[in-house]
C-alpha cells in the first residue's frame, strides 16, 4: 500500500482533505502534514448559497493529536471564496471544514476534545502534567479556558420550587436557597 494512502487514513475526514507531503523532523520530534482542502462547492456562512469562485488561498497551521512521540502540525491550505449572492453582506469568506476544525481555531476538533476530556477529569495543573507526558504542551490556563467554553448541562425547569431564607450569623449575614421539591435537589 502506498504511504500517502496509509497517512491519509489518519486524517479525520478524508473526503474533503488531501495529504500532499509529511516530512518528519527527528531532532524536534515533530511531523508536519501538508494538507489541502478539496471541497467542490462551498456554502456561504452568511446566506448558505453555494459557490466555487476562488478569490485567493490561505494557509493556517493546526495542532493535532501526537503520533507516538512526535508532535503533529498541519499547514492546512484552504480557499478564500467570493459569495455568489449579491445581496449577502459577506463578500469574501474562507471555506469551512466542520468535521475537522472550528472557524478560527488553531487545534483540530479531535485534539480539542482530547484536551477537554483530560481537563474535565484532572483539572488544570494535573491535566497539564499528563499532556506534557503525552507530547503536548498546553498551559493550565488554556485547559481551564477550554473547560469554561463547554455548554452547561441541560436541565429541565423545576415545576415545584421551595424557597428558604436563613442566617449564617444572627443579624449579620443572610442566605437564600431555592430547592426543586420534585427532585429534592438545590437549584440555586
Structure description:
- With 188 residues, the protein is α+β, with helices and mostly antiparallel strands.
- The protein folds into three domains: 3-98, no CATH class; 107-150; 156-188, no CATH class.
- Helices cover 21% and strands 36% of the residues.
- The longest helix is centred in the middle third of the chain and has 14 residues, at 109-122.
- The model has no long low-confidence stretch (mean pLDDT 82).
Compile the SSE list and pairings:
Blueprint: H1 3-8, E1 17-21, E2 24-25, E3 30-32, E4 34-37, E5 42-43, E6 50-51, E7 54-67, E8 70-82, E9 92-94, H2 109-122, H3 124-133, H4 140-148, E10 161-169, E11 173-180, E12 185-186
Helix pairs in contact: 2-3, 2-4, 3-4
Helix content: 10-25%
- The strand count comes to 12
Instruction: Give the C-alpha Rg.
Output: 24 Å
Spatial gap, N to C terminus: 59 Å
Please tally the helical runs, counting DSSP H or I stretches of 4 or more residues: 4
Summarize the main sheet: 7 strands, mixed
Which ranges are low-confidence, i.e. pLDDT below 50, for 5 or more consecutive residues? none
Mean pLDDT across residues: 82
Beta-strand percentage range: 35-45%
> Any idea how many domains?
3
Order of helices and strands: HEEEEEEEEEHHHEEE
Give the CA-based shape.
flat
Which structural class do the helices and strands define? alpha+beta
Amino acid at each position: 500500500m502506498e504511504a500517502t494512502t496509509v497517512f491519509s487514513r489518519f486524517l479525520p475526514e478524508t473526503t474533503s482533505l488531501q495529504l500532499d507531503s509529511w516530512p518528519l523532523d527527528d531532532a524536534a520530534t515533530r511531523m508536519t502534514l501538508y494538507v489541502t482542502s478539496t471541497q467542490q462547492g462551498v456554502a456561504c456562512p452568511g446566506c448558505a448559497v453555494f459557490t466555487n469562485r476562488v478569490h485567493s488561498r490561505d494557509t493556517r497551521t493546526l495542532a493535532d493529536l501526537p503520533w507516538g512521540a512526535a508532535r503533529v502540525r498541519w499547514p492546512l491550505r484552504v480557499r478564500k471564496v467570493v459569495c455568489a449572492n449579491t445581496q449577502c453582506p459577506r463578500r469574501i469568506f474562507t471555506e469551512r471544514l466542520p468535521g475537522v476544525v472550528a472557524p478560527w481555531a488553531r487545534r483540530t476538533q479531535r485534539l480539542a476534545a482530547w484536551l477537554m476530556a483530560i481537563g474535565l477529569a484532572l483539572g488544570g495543573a494535573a491535566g497539564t502534567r499528563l499532556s506534557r507526558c503525552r507530547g503536548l504542551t498546553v498551559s493550565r490556563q488554556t485547559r481551564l479556558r477550554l473547560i469554561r467554553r463547554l455548554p452547561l448541562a441541560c436541565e429541565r425547569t423545576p415545576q415545584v420550587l421551595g424557597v428558604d431564607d436563613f442566617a449564617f450569623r444572627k443579624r449579620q449575614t443572610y442566605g437564600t436557597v431555592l430547592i426543586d421539591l420534585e427532585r429534592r435537589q438545590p437549584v440555586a
